[in-house]
TrEMBL record:
<keyword id="KW-0547">Nucleotide-binding</keyword>
<dbReference type="InterPro" id="IPR042111">
    <property type="entry name" value="Adenylosuccinate_synth_dom3"/>
</dbReference>
<feature type="active site" description="Proton acceptor">
    <location>
        <position position="12"/>
    </location>
</feature>
<keyword id="KW-0479">Metal-binding</keyword>
<dbReference type="GO" id="GO:0046040">
    <property type="term" value="P:IMP metabolic process"/>
</dbReference>
<dbReference type="InterPro" id="IPR027417">
    <property type="entry name" value="P-loop_NTPase"/>
</dbReference>
<feature type="binding site">
    <location>
        <position position="40"/>
    </location>
    <ligand>
        <name>Mg(2+)</name>
    </ligand>
</feature>
<feature type="binding site">
    <location>
        <position position="136"/>
    </location>
    <ligand>
        <name>IMP</name>
    </ligand>
</feature>
<feature type="binding site" description="in other chain">
    <location>
        <position position="122"/>
    </location>
    <ligand>
        <name>IMP</name>
    </ligand>
</feature>
<dbReference type="InterPro" id="IPR001114">
    <property type="entry name" value="Adenylosuccinate_synthetase"/>
</dbReference>
<feature type="binding site">
    <location>
        <begin position="11"/>
        <end position="17"/>
    </location>
    <ligand>
        <name>GTP</name>
    </ligand>
</feature>
<feature type="binding site" description="in other chain">
    <location>
        <position position="174"/>
    </location>
    <ligand>
        <name>IMP</name>
    </ligand>
</feature>
<comment type="similarity">
    <text>Belongs to the adenylosuccinate synthetase family.</text>
</comment>
<dbReference type="GO" id="GO:0005737">
    <property type="term" value="C:cytoplasm"/>
</dbReference>
<protein>
    <recommendedName>
        <fullName>Adenylosuccinate synthetase</fullName>
        <ecNumber>6.3.4.4</ecNumber>
    </recommendedName>
</protein>
<feature type="binding site" description="in other chain">
    <location>
        <position position="251"/>
    </location>
    <ligand>
        <name>IMP</name>
    </ligand>
</feature>
<feature type="binding site">
    <location>
        <begin position="40"/>
        <end position="42"/>
    </location>
    <ligand>
        <name>GTP</name>
    </ligand>
</feature>
Amino acid sequence: MLDILVGGFYGDEGKGKVASYLGLKGGYTLAVRTGSINAGHTVNYQGRTWKIRVIPSAFVNPNVKLALGPGLLTSIEQLEKELEETNSKSRILIDPHVGIITKAEVLEEQRDEFLMKIIGSTGQGVGTAESKRVLRKLRLAKDFRELESVIGDVPETIIETIREGNSVIAEGTQGTYLSLFHGEYPFVTSRNTTAGGVLSEVGVGPKYVRDVIVVFKSFVSRVGEGYLEGELPREKAEEMGLVEKGTVTGRPRRVAPFNISLAKRAVRLNSATQVAITKLDAIFKQDKHVRDYSKLSAGSRNWIENIENELKVPVTLIGTGEDSLDMIDLRKEKLGE
């Protein structure tokens, strides 16, 4: 069956960490990526760090096959760079309908003062490329001879993988509240970033879905413009050790305390069946690298249980450090898996 992984806030929730952990421990045969090069996932595993934008984070398991869904956008340069860094060219499949961003789209977007100065675009050419796709002017992967050897039908591959009795994970991008349809328009991205959008981008219907895993961080962060409820002054964020920088832009992330109202709505918008919470150690520093729930501090356990009671969805994965395996896995206890 198909599991979907999405962000519950404004991106930067730690989806890369969760996806890499599930790639190692989730029993998946195939991992599919959606989104584009304007958002990055960070993976830390066995002393190495990767900052990737288009390759599925499950690449850390060499036995997992990888695919880019038809709704994805990438530049050939970024794709080749990541294939090299992750040593995954021998197991990648790229749908012929993947959109290709060229320097023309990047330059056009960077000249748009509204996007760059008012919205806070990352300037990667993604919005411009999406616009061209809608106008049927964008070039696709099938139009580039250098990609011929890795082109294939990704929706059909997903369906056949499932029919053979195997599991697939679809990795979403950014977060629920950057969705073109559900975020604070116009301070949003150029696609639907909810579970429904992920399904559309990978090209299969809802009957194949087993679980929707929504990822929240222990606090809220946001890059770029737009309202952020409860935003902390930078001095306070630094004092609390919550200062971060965006994976793609390097810009400081604005931060705020965990927002239960946003989390509840994200659970509903995505039809969440599981919740993952990352960076527990950012607010409960004594619990860094803990991998056994019973060894968490009482404060951490109470905090997790209160969130679970509010959301009415099981918290099955809890991140406590940078490494992919710094994870408390409660799927067996909560779901019987």
